[in-house]
Design goal:
The protein is of the alpha+beta class. It is built from three helices and six strands. 33% of the residues lie in helices and 39% in strands. The radius of gyration is 17 Å and the shape is elongated.
């Protein structure tokens, strides 16, 4: 896996993935940023959410659950001192669908956390406390 980062002025950078997708990163205004994109640590948090959500949906599809939506909310706490690393992250999955079985949703979240989500497992090994919760919403 590869990526490139190119400075685009002030505290702004264009990040390009090895697969050719780009995203604009920027620092906060109090550090010279212009709010042109997410902060790098926000991207790290979004990457974790994407990785885990991908796993949960993949597992639910394989278990033939009729999911119509999956929304994941992440909240993170960071250290007060530099480096301001993540100390805690909580992921809350809101899974919507028809006739969803709670044991399947619980299993999908657990498997992602404990076995499949590389980002989550890597951050935990670095000392970040990661917790998960879920709720199920029914559609007719």
């Amino acid at each position: 896996m590869k990526a490139t980062i190119d400075w685009t002025g002030n505290t702004s950078f264009r990040a390009t993935s090895g697969s050719g997708h780009s995203v604009q990163l920027d620092g906060p205004p109090d550090h010279g940023g212009e709010n042109l994109g997410p902060r790098p640590m926000e991207m790290l948090l979004m990457g974790l959410g994407g990785c885990s959500s991908f796993d949960v949906m993949s597992i639910l599809k394989k278990s033939r659950q009729d999911v119509t939506a999956c929304h994941t909310e992440l909240e993170a706490e960071r250290a007060d001192a530099v480096p301001a690393v993540f100390t805690r992250i909580h992921l809350h999955f809101v899974v919507t669908g028809r006739n969803l079985r709670e044991n399947q949703v619980k299993r999908a979240v657990s498997l992602s956390a404990e076995k499949y989500c590389s980002a989550s497992i890597m951050l935990e090994k670095a000392g970040v406390e990661i917790t998960h919760s879920y709720e199920i919403r029914t559609t007719e």
